[in-house]
Amino acid sequence: MAGAPANVRALLAAASLRLDGDAARSEVELLLAHALGTSRSWLYAWPEHVPTPAQQARFAELVEARVRGEPVAYLLGEREFWSLRLVVTPAVLIPRADTEVLVEQALARLPAATALQVADLGTGSGAVALAIASERAQARVLATDASPAALALARRNAHDLRLANVEFAQGDWCAALGSRQFDLIASNPPYIAEGDPHLLQGDLRFEPRAALGSGPDGLDAIRAIVAQAPRHLLADGWLLLEHGFDQATAVRALLADAGYREIGSARDHAGHERVSGARRPRA
Description:
The chain has helices at residues 8-16, 24-36, 40-45, 53-67, 72-76, 100-108, 127-135, 148-160, 220-228, 248-257, and strands spanning 78-81, 84-87, 117-121, 140-145, 166-170, 182-187, 233-242, 261-267, 273-279. It is of the alpha/beta class. The protein folds into two domains: 8-68, Orthogonal Bundle (Helicase, Ruva Protein, domain 3); 92-279, 3-Layer(aba) Sandwich (Rossmann fold), CATH 3.40.50.150. The model has no long low-confidence stretch (mean pLDDT 94).
């Protein structure tokens, strides 16, 4: 970027040429706005503005990091999910739009203004737990994760969003629930097969492997949750699981083999079956 004209318009034009893909322009706008401590709309209003040398240097660092493949969400330190601004770091998976289907399916099963008990297993940044808590103020949401760093970040996000109906517990899947039972348990567990080449591509290279891969077929974590969840669900409680776009049939089979009732799947906005769920097995 050395030698490039120093106004906003020129900086954006030069940086856009460094990145590949249809999102290049929007990404460099986000990075420049972050370096300037302003908004993308401000960039459009003031294209002739000349950033300070320090701001230009910071922008150049961000662009170089993105050229190396580092995710924009980690470079910005935040990601929006369910209209909530979440702080994210490399300690947690980056929240994605597909996971909003999990929130939608949970809310459809959680009547408003009702004191319900909800658990989110493997909460990461807290995205699912905090989205549910923001929509169901009377519900009590327990967010769990095996990672202390992830739980610390989820707590920070809950504090920043002033959501007081969320609590946190450390542990691997249902082990964190103790003897408690819930009206609904939701989880976006790791579900990528360990040998999947996608783990070595794009943003996934920089995200925590424990939050992505789960055994030879990607279903080890889901198997564990399906097996453990019944004793933590109330009589008509629901288990909802996000999974890969091609795993719905396998997940429904796991639920059926374990005796769950009212098994079904919901599609994401691309038409893929993304979330499968069912009621607790009969005693």
